[in-house]
User: What shape does this take?
Amino acid sequence: EPEVTQTPSHQVTQMGQEVILRCVPISNHLYFYWYRQILGQKVEFLVSFYNNEISEKSEIFDDQFSVERPDGSNFTLKIRSTKLEDSAMYFCASSDGTGEDEQFFGPGTRLTVL
Amino acid sequence: DAKTTQPPSMDCAEGRAANLPCNHSTISGNEYVYWYRQIHSQGPQYIIHGLKNNETNEMASLIITEDRKSSTLILPHATLRDTAVYYCIVRAGAGANSKLTFGKGITLSVRP
Assistant: This one.
């Protein structure tokens, strides 16, 4: 069964450093999303992406964040200058945009900012 | 903010049906009810969704009341692996690309 994959599974970085989180969505999907979950808190929407453009972003997704689909398979989330409060699980999701458009999530990347 | 309310937790015995309730009294006519679950810290997993008719798939059944103000997710024979946080989410589903708004969910504990 096709699935969303994410790398790395765990990323440790120093405050102020740039990180790139990578996702490979399901191959025929056209809509891509990033969510995050701070430990013990709710899953929060960050951004949605379609046709090489951001469709919607939350207030969390400020100028420190960017997304890109650099090739036909990867979807990346970049945090330019990490803060302690960016420590969280980051989940990528994708959907095919048909029917009722179920989103399928990857296993997540745990980001730890020291 | 999430448009649903769920009890914080419940438990059930292994092998028995687990009935997870959800209230969504302000649901609009074009909004679907989706259920996802999250096992430990894994990525949320899609379970089922519906608009107004009851739905069943290999994982679960979804019963939506006639007025659509509440629903129940039924796991017919719960196993220990069904222990997870279950999220009931209301979302405009007929168009793509709309975000999922997660609440706190209900923690289901399946006991041996």
Observations:
- The first strand of chain B starts at residue 9 and ends at 13.
- Chain B touches chain A at residues 32, 34, 38, 41-46, 49, 51, 87, 93-104 (CB under 8 Å).
